[in-house]
Every structure is written in structure tokens, then in C-alpha cells.
Predict the 3D structure of the following.
Amino acid sequence: MIKIKNIYWMLSYAFHNLNTKTFKKLETEEFENIYELFAEILIKGVNKQLKRNINREYKLKIEELSNLKGKILISDSIKSNTMIRHKMTCEYDEFSVNSYMNQIVKITLIQLLKSEKLDKTYMIRIKRILDCLNEVEVINYLLIDWKNIRYDRNNVTYKMIINVCYLVLNGLILTQEDGKKEFMTFVDDQKMAKLFENFVKEYYRKHFPELEAVSAHIDWNTNDDFILLPDMKTDVTLKYKDRVLIIDTKYYSNSLQKNKLFDTQKIRNNNMYQIFTYVKNFDKDKTGKVEGMILYAKTNETIAPNQVNNIGGNKFTITTLDLNDDFENIMNKLDSVAYGFTNGELKKTM
């Protein structure tokens, strides 16, 4: 498992606004488990929205009204005999707090309440927030359309909140055992892998802006039109002068694959094939100025992959970032990658 404090820092870089005044105190607080950290982030974030600008959306409503507004539905009024009650059926838009984002927030808080690992003080604070969201509908979190959530200048402050909701609802999946509802341990490799990737990319964007850290698309080095070839998109690509470093971040419960027959461990085959393909297709002119790196997140393994090879004129590095280490050491390791790639010519931006 990863230190709770380090998960906070990863979230902080990945979602930017965890470093704002609202969340600044989280750096010094101690949390017993991941549930408390997520609960505290959501409590602080949602309370801020409630005090300032809770998200609202226009919702279409149809109801019988004495004081007419919007569009009067004559045929519906006749069918329902609303005129006998001195009313008409009206259709109008209502600026409501029952927005999709608030629905996601509400169901996430409800799910957090089901964890037995939350201290009572967190539950009390969550219930107070839910009291303020009475008008918000309770939705099925399994049906949330995460891919189609869009942000604009009116709701951009919800971006970090919704991302944390995503981690809670998809990483802390509810299980049913002996009639009790409880969360699974936060070890979902897929969700943590994406957080790890975003953390590394945003770290370099913040502290080494000259490296122009991006997730870049790579074209296949071919003149033929193979429409069935898979897309190639890097996790992190760094550029400095005429050189390129492609970083493939990897997060697994176990980084190495085991050969049971010979009782040996080695790097996963597909990891090496992937970074090799990226580098060789990017370096079309065979300049040797494109490097590849597999950056593993070390969690609870004792063996940490660490080696450098030159394959076909290109440098390939396999190394590990220990997420159980003090965060200062994690930063030092990421800094050393940048310094090594630029031959120490760049300075870190704080």
C-alpha cells in the first residue's frame, strides 16, 4: 500500500487545486486510512461550493400552476381538467441545484457513509452536507457517464471534487459479505495507474515547464495505410532541445512477472515491447536522440527494477519510484530523471 500522505500529494499534483487555501491544511493532518482522506477532501470541497457557488443546471419541469409561467400546454390542461382547479399545465425551465454533478457528489457521500472505517466525526459532517442536498436526486452510481462530463468556467471548481468522486466510486467498490456492506481495499491497479501517470506528468509540468510534458501521439513509421494498427499514445513525453524522453508509467501490485518453473523474476514482456515500439517509431531517422523509460511505482515489493540498456542505438531505462518513501525522496527521484535527461542544464521551478 501507499502512504496516505503520498496519495494526497499525488492527488494534489494531478488535480492542481488541492494546493489552494481550502485544502492546504491537509498537508499537516494525519489520516488513519484512505477513506478519511477522501472524506476530508470532499467535505472541504463541497462545503466551499455550498458557501459560494453550488452548481446549478436548468431542468425542464411540467406541472399545474395557478400563477402561469413558461409555455402553457393547452392540450395537456384540457385532458387533465386543470381549469376546474383554476390551474393550467405549464412547461418551464427551473434553475435547479439538482444538477448531474451534485447528484454524483451526493451518491458518493452516501457510499462513503457505508464504510465502517470512517470515524463518527466524519459521518456527522457528511450528514450535515447531505441535509443541504435534500433537493438533489439520488442516482445509481453504476450508471454514471463519466466520459461525457464537461467543464466550463461556471463549474470548473468541481473538477477536483468529481475526480475524487470517481476514485471513491470506482476504486472503493462495495462488496456484500455476511449481510454487511464494506469497501474493498483501495488497490485497484487501473485507477491507481491513471493517478500515478497524471501525477508524474503534472509534476514535470509544474517544476520543469521547459520540458513541455505531454501525453503525445506517435505515428507508425510506415508509408502504408494500415487502418487497423492500434493508436500509440505515451503516458509522458519530455522534450529538451533536440532530444526526447518517453516515459511509460506502470502501476502494479506486483511489478515483475514470475517464472514458476525456474523460480525467477523479470520485467513484464509487454512493458518492454511497448516502450521499444514507442521509441523506435518516434525515432524514424534513427538519430539515437529518443530515449525510453519504464517508470514502475514501487508499493510493497522487495525487488525494485533498475537498469539501463542501449538497444539498437537508443537508451532504455527501467527504474522505480518508491511510493512508500518520504515524499521529499520521491521528488528527488523525479528531479534526478529531469537532471539526467538534460545533463543538469535545467533548474527546478518551485
